[in-house]
Design goal:
Elements (H helix, E strand, L loop, with lengths): L8 E6 L2 E6 L2 E7 L4 E4 L9 H9 L3 E4 L16 E4 L4 H8 L4 E4 L5 E3 L4 E6 L8 E5 L4 E3 L18 H11 L1
Parallel strand pairs: 4-5, 6-7
Antiparallel strand pairs: 1-2, 2-3, 3-4, 8-9, 9-10, 10-11
């Protein structure tokens, strides 16, 4: 049986900002005037995420991950490198292999996209290296699976309910 490739659910959210839905997972394309960030790559259920992202914003697009779970890394093969907290590297390598060069993502690190700066906030709990990106100027927080409307899974071995609560307190 043939299943045609899926198309993403695309929602422009404002200047330089798009939500891309992949089977219930929200990915974000965040653009400045010089470069953009593709935040997570979903399940990988459609082809051409990088081309879509770069076509939407017309800019080179960095890949940044909130964490390494498979529902956030499925289209990584379309990039040569990805920014990821080192606490996630072992999980990423066990799931995805060596095809993508990993760059260390650290608490307090900033990405200057040209007129838009995103700050990395380490928010462990859902996983050891979960991060959120904060756009202070636009008052936007991209929280991955740390803050969401669905239940947050905290039962995997790498999860820590105590760290999760501390991360929520910090974000508040």
């Amino acid at each position: 049986m043939f299943f045609p490739p899926k198309t993403p659910d695309l929602h422009p959210l404002g200047p330089g900002l798009w939500e891309i839905g992949d089977a219930g997972i929200n990915l974000y394309l965040i653009a400045g005037s010089e470069r953009a960030i593709m935040l997570d790559t979903g399940f990988g259920s459609f082809v051409g995420l990088r081309a879509l992202a770069e076509g939407l914003c017309g800019l080179p697009t960095l890949l940044v991950h909130t964490h390494a779970h498979g529902d956030h890394t499925g289209s990584d093969h379309e990039w040569a490198e990805a920014w990821l907290h080192p606490g996630e590297w072992a999980r990423f390598r066990s799931d995805r292999g060596e095809g993508v060069r990993l760059l260390p993502l650290e608490d307090g690190q900033r990405f200057d996209l040209g007129g838009r700066t995103l700050e990395v906030i380490h928010v462990p709990g859902h996983s050891a290296g979960s991060v959120a990106l904060l756009d202070r100027e636009n008052r936007l927080l991209f929280s991955g699976d740390t803050v969401m409307t669905q239940p947050v899974f905290l039962f995997n071995p790498e999860c820590s309910p105590a760290d999760f609560l501390s991360s929520l307190d910090y974000l508040a």
